[in-house]
Amino acid sequence: MTVKVIGGGLAGCEACYQLAKRGIKTILYEMRPKKFTPCHSTGNLCELVCSNSLKSIGLETASGLLKEEMSVLDSLIIKCAKECSVPSGSALSVDRALFSEKVTEKLLSLSDFKLVTDEVIDIDKDEYTIIASGPLTSDSLAVSIKELIGCDYLHFFDAASPIVSAESIDYDKAFFASRYGKGDKFDYLNLPMNKEEYDLFLNELIHAKCAEVKGFEKNLVFEGCMPVEVMALRGENTLRFGPLKPVGLYNEGKKYYAVVQLRRENKEGTMYNIVGFQTHLTFPEQKRVFSLIPALKNAEFLRYGVMHRNTFINSPEILNSDLSMKKYGKIFFAGQITGVEGYVESAAAGLIAGINTALKIKGEETLIPSENTIIGSLLRYITSNVDNFQPMNANFGLLKPLDTVIKDKQLRKKEFSKRAVNDIIKFNDTVKNI
Residues in the chain with pLDDT < 50? Predict the structure, then answer.
């Protein structure tokens, strides 16, 4: 039995490693250097086109915990990253060229691995395949994916608002209500502002620094998905007649000048999405400007807003939690195309897709880590039935709540990490010899 893996990025390479080390013949197809994406400049596997940082290594962070979980599961990407690390404080950063060389070297050393530099256009529904083509999937392959999953379930533009931790919101400066009383009272959490607060927020928003927009992304913005800072530039009242409209929101008879609305991002209510705040602002500027909203003064941002070219599927509609397709069980998806955000998150999806493809080939039941782990909770999030599905990165807000209440934030995160590591060790004991 041979598995075809499409895409030589972090997810594809991790999936190949998990398969080949388990004795399953694996062919990795990477179209570079024959055909390039708008971002890549080499034909190397695992070319890092943005930052060379894989974020924090501390277990008090979700990113650090994710790396620890992957280390337990013998991740190729984390192993190579550590071998190619460069000094960067508490973060894991790599020498890009050396990292790429190391990943390629380790894969080619596996007897059951083969690399083919060619573009895949057609997908065989009856062939074991892992699609890990990334956010810059070629147009030809995207056509095949659309035919495979249905055109309504493939997105080419990622416009997501920031998400904040529920526990970091100042509820003394917020109230629950649905506009005009429609729906459940707790559908929206409303953050009011008076004129002085709104004017300050508006001024800082207009003058905030935006992230660089790549040339091939400049024409992606459309009226139905306008960045909040662009709306602000259209006039001082544009936001007040748009996403910050105070009309129809009642709280003990009080009237407000402007109201920011938050919507639950998960069933547990541990995360809230800032409605209508898709943005091009840099991450530090989002933190600075959006924290001017009184109720978000001390907000913890679990995910920042983004607007960029990003091919991803509607995973809740398409995928099982093990990353296989609901319709075609031999086809798996992995990496950013599934709706995970970030280098390490992409590799983690590749790791699980590789393990589960191996399990299925060997006639075993597919598995994912528990919801106490970052990997397990992230995969459950992207494959759950959520409205308006948007990509997600690793964060503690995804985890199942602790059995006991711990008020100290740092102690609570340490307890989350302790529980997750215990569970990932148990998961590894189950799959390591398969």
Answer: 216-217, 222-224
